[in-house]
Amino acid sequence: MQSPRNNRSFTQLMAFDIEPQWLQALVTALSEQTERLARDHKGFLSASIQASEDGRRVLNYLQWQTREAGEAAFRSFESGEQDFWRLIQAHRAKAVTFGSFQVLHNIERSLDNALHCQLVD
């Protein structure tokens, strides 16, 4: 039996293909935009910006309490003062891939070094 969708957190993943000389500028811009989204939108859980070792790929991972929270934040990202499409153009991304995911299983290490596994209902 499947669980109701609204009990699961929601993840947005954006992968950027860029030239290495644009890496730091893109990471800075994504960091600023992610901080704005986290501050201005309810339902934010976490985010991560990661770069490949060769500097040609950047991943931006945002996790939200609900799909609705994530989609509302992304709509503002698309049309806000710091327009997402201008961000892509300014940092000369060759390709951008978007993905949306529901979290089904989490494994985390706590401060006391114990592993906690959670199947999300």
Q: What does the average pLDDT come to?
A: 81
What separation lies between the terminal Cα atoms? 10 Å
State Rg.
16 Å
For the biggest β-sheet, the strand order reads 2-3-1-4
Number of domains: 1
Tell me the β content: 25-35%
| Cα shape | globular
Account of the protein in words:
- It is globular, with a radius of gyration of 16 Å.
- The longest helix has 18 residues.
- It has 3 helices and 6 strands; from the N terminus they run E-H-E-E-H-H-E-E-E.
- The chain has a single domain, classed as Alpha-Beta Plaits.
- With 121 residues, it is an alpha+beta fold.
- The strands form 2 sheets. Strands 2-3-1-4 form a 4-stranded antiparallel β-sheet. A two-stranded antiparallel ribbon has the order 5-6.
- A hairpin with a 5-residue loop joins strand 5 and strand 6.
Q: Main traits of this protein?
A:
globular, 121 residues, monooxygenase activity, oxidoreductase, 6 strands, 3 helices, disordered N terminus, Alpha-Beta Plaits, two-stranded antiparallel ribbon, Antibiotic biosynthesis monooxygenase, alpha+beta, 31% helix
Please outline what is shown here.
The protein is built from three helices and six strands; from the N terminus they run E-H-E-E-H-H-E-E-E.
